[in-house]
Amino acid sequence: MKPARLLLAASILALVAGTAQAQTVLDLVPADATAGIAIRNVAELSKRGDEFVNEAGMQNLFRPSQLWLLALQFLGINGGIDLKSPTAIVLAPPEKGQDLLNLPNLDRFLVLILPFTEIDALARNFGFENGQLKAGKMEEGKGTNFGKFFFARGKHLYIGNTREAIARVLDGKAGRKELSAAQKKSVNDSDVVIHVNPRAMGKEWGSFIDNLRSQFGKLDDNAEQQVIDHFLDALTDVRYGLGTLRVDRGLGVSLLAVLGNEKKGGKEFLKTLGAAQSAANLRGLPDGNVLAVQASQGDGRKTGIIAKVLFDWVLKTLVRDRRILAAVDQPVVVGVFTEVWTRLRGSRLAIYKNPAESEQGLMSGVAILDTDDAGKFLADLRTLAKIADGKGLELNPKEKGKPAVDVEQLIRDLSDRQYHVRESATLKLRLLGEPVLPRLDKARRAAELEVSRRADRLYRQIAEAAAARRKELLYAEVLRSIRPTFAYIAEAEKRQGRVVDVVRIQLSDADVQRARPFMKQLLGPEWNNLRLVPHGKQVVAFFGSDLDLLNETLRNLAGDKPGLQGSTAIKAFQRQAPSARRIELHLAMASLLALIDPQGVRLPAKAVLSSAGLSVGADYLQLDMWVPSSEVSIIARGSGL
User: Fold this and answer.
1) Is residue 73 part of a domain?
2) Please, which residues have CB within 8 angstroms of residue 314's CB and are 6 or more apart in sequence?
3) How many CB atoms lie under 10 A from the CB of residue 177?
4) Which domain holds residue 93?
């Protein structure tokens, strides 16, 4: 659109809405702007921001009030601004095909939007006489370091270095119809709002997506590759993103990505990720000395592929590179994770600091797993434990007398149309290990392409793992050469009137000498026992030695008590984040750092948690975070701020 047409459109808009006052931050930043930052109430942010800096002990940082004064000095403004109304700076919407971020003189496209108490009082800062600057008319003036053109609309003054930039902002797409009333209210109630339009960023956003695509690489399973493609489609289809900041005895941050309608794969990704009948919650978990808490809700059959792909990627990029986990063991770890995940409809897990470290070890953990059938879930785990143990198993189902595994059926299942069947068969064959290599070698030459391809990959993985283990023994890589087996003990004990099954970790005599001191210090004398207790359709899993936590969990479930869900430590986060969260995570950073440096961290009198939650809609993805001032203070001291 030519500048003259832009000005005409802006003038018509100004005449229509000239008397209307833009009162919210969303009114100031057009939905198609390249980028923008808006402040709801400068006076309030300055006051609360200064209080937050004091509470967090970050006196070395600039205070919000100081930054605002510096901004006014830079602009040469001495008065006339309404400090209680929204203000913004916007990078104008681009013309079609224009990449503003890669153009020289970016300030040509910036527009500053200032609220005024009285137009003449603000206009005098830019060389205007009283009555010279009128609403709905573009005028030339002179700013100290920024501003050549000025346009008043409602109770705001639009300031820019070019007519075109102001006209584009005035003519930008107003409103965000795709946001719900609750989302709009949440954004408009925030102290600071940041708007980003990836589509207006030119090559940068495309390069970011291409880099992600290369990191994931080409996956062997078509279903997994489709998940990656849909995830990247979702990123490609982001219309705009909104980041919000709240300052009030802590920092509340929300990141909202809104999708368009150009990529069906993006909507499919959100539909799969958001598949759940209820929201994530912490109900039933004990309200104790928490170190970390996680909760998720969703149909494991649908989200299992996403969980598997992302977990595999995390292990590759964060774990394996730090040599915590041997590369040859990664497929098994990922396989077990996926096998359990696909059977869940939700879960919550909390790790607690033990009250008597010398007798109980450092920590214990309890999880509540939501399943369709707790009995079948435990039976499936029992089967996996037997396969992983390998002792007493017969690989030929025609011979009686020993528990049998039908290897031939597992090989046929490698090409099953259902993803979870393929993955389950793959995991069981991996766990069986070297004894199935001859049959996998035969299957590598099968007529069915899918069976031969997957059998070949499994054959190579199992053979490489066996070779790596022998190499580890030769080079004495102690921690990474430990290979546990598992014994499933049904009805091992009773607690709170309920039967408890135990999965016992078994190590060789040599491995016990190497691993037990560390594990006992971490989890106490019960370090090698994972307790499983069915409760209706739920399964309670407990590890560690503070068995009072397990008893309290069972009492909470029996009495339908909220437990950790009603804790005051997460109230601030619950007020900020949408109630229909799919995933949430809470960390007691002070307590975690105190484990590392007991003398250097002073724990607060009351437990506080830093929190994050993920919400999913038909066309949006939202991440909410909350960090209390006391936790920010600890981070600040650790980083030297």
Assistant:
1) yes
2) none
3) 7
4) 3-197
Does residue 353 belong to any structural domain of this protein? yes
Share of the chain above pLDDT 90, in %: 39
CA dihedral 76, 81, 83, 89 (to 10 degrees): -70
Chain centre distance of CA 185: 23
Going by C-alpha positions, the residue among 343, 365, 379, 367 that lies closest to residue 490 is 379
Q: Are residues 165 and 26 in the same domain?
A: yes
308 and 449 in a common domain: yes
How far apart CA 391 and CA 382 sit, in angstroms, is 13
Are residues 329 and 190 located together in one domain of the fold?
A: no
Helix H or strand E segment including 483: none
Q: Which two tokens stand for residue 402?
A: 């020993």
Nearest residue to 190 (alpha-carbon basis) of 243, 137, 245:
245
Number of domains in the chain: 2
Band (pLDDT 50/70/90 cuts) for residue 62 is low
Mean pLDDT of the chain: 83
- Give yes or no: residues 330 and 186 share one domain: no
Establish if 99 belongs to a structural domain.
yes
Q: Do the Cβ atoms of 178 and 163 come closer than 8 Å?
A: no
| Banded model confidence at residue 624, pLDDT cuts 50, 70, 90 | very high
Domain end position, chosen among 517, 533, 566: 566
Same domain, 191 and 90: yes
* C-beta of residue 28 within 8 angstroms of C-beta of residue 86: yes
Task: Note the pLDDT tens digit of each residue in 479-505.
Answer: 444 567 778 899 999 999 999 999 988
The least confident of 66-75, 199-208, 505-514, 596-605 is 596-605
Distances (CA, A) of 640 to 58, 67, 633: 9, 21, 10
pLDDT in tens, 4-32: 444 333 433 333 333 344 468 898 999 88
* 469 pLDDT tier (thresholds 50, 70, 90): low
Taking the whole predicted model, whether its pTM rises above 0.85 is answered as no
- Give CA–CA dist 442/123, Å, rounded: 85
R_g over Cα of the chain = 30
| 193 and 288 together in one domain | no
Given 197, 232, 267, the domain boundary residue is 197
Least confident of 115-129, 417-431, 609-623: 417-431
Runs of H (alpha helix) within 237-299: 264-273
What average pLDDT does this structure show over 495-524?
Answer: 84
Q: Are residues 189 and 301 in the same domain?
A: no
Cα separation, 234 vs 241, in Å, equals 12
The answer on 301 and 160 residing in a single domain is no
Task: Look at residue 541 and give its three-state secondary structure.
Answer: strand
The single residue listed with the structure tokens 């087996």 is 485
Reported as half-sphere exposure (CB side, CA atoms, 13 A), residue 534 has a value of 16
Q: Which uninterrupted H or E stretch holds 634?
A: helix 629-639
In sequence order, the β-bridge partners of residue 504 are: 487, 529
Is 597 domain-assigned? no
